[in-house]
Amino acid sequence: MAFARMTRSISVPIILSSGAVALCLALLVGWSYLVLQNPEMVADLRGNRWLLVAGIGSLVVIMFVIVLFTVFLVREIREVRRQTSFIDSVTHELKSPLAALKLCLETLARPDLPGAQHERLRRMMHDDVERLTAFIDRVLTATRLAGEVRPAQHLTDISLAELARRCAAGVTRRAHLADDVVRVDIAPELRIVTDEVALAAVLENLIDNAIKYSGDDVAVVVSASAVEARGQVALEVRDRGIGIPRTHLRRVFERFYRVPDEAVRERRGTGLGLYVVSALVRSLGGRAEALSPGPGQGTTLRVTLPMRLRSA
User: Fold this and answer.
1) Left, alpha or beta for 145 (phi > 0: left; psi -120 to 50: alpha)?
2) Which of 46, 95, 289, 290, by CA, is between 20 and 30 Å from 26?
3) pLDDT at 6
């Protein structure tokens, strides 16, 4: 167990490679010092300068290879950590609704169950199934995008305000929240020609993320404005939640990445939502970015898209 923990530790390859680089440097300095302090050796080597050059070059190459190996090893260790965290999150995401479904089915088997309670349990089971379906769809989408499989696009002229309201209603219903916790502030005349399914997935993930990382007082604003000079639309989803440290703003779009903070760990999640957003936005010809003044000060997730996407 101790050896397994060491092989997963980032500090171990860094320490080993640092020691190897230091040893190479010591050999290089020692060799140079020995040559300079022994003129007779230099005289003997004048005819074989290529040997001295080859020795120094070999040490430099060895140091370069060691450093390169360390960089790749650290990346692999981090990826393994993220995948382990992802598996833990998936287990939790699947176990909770399945346990609820099992309890509902056991309760429904009671012969003396009142009709009103029967209907309430049916709605609960329906909500759990919808939650599982949304979760599985997110995982499958992330898998396809990670495999660089570009989804087929069907371009349509879309009312951005109408699509945002529809996505907000679906997310708040699954989260068992009132409709007014998500306010859509988009002009009715603002339209965009793009893939509706992909953009809907982007909006649902952004709104779900904003709700998830809000506090008890959920207040999310979805807004959009046209940037006529560039032929683009800037779409923003703002919350007043836990915020993101500035050093992590770029990394939140990486696959499996979750900010290493207790406030994040205590919330369900897999580190795939914003990765899916970033990949889908790129496929739509746009870009995604995260903005936050810091922890506890809320987050704004901004997506910039062309107003008219050209078909591939």
Assistant:
1) alpha
2) 46
3) 43
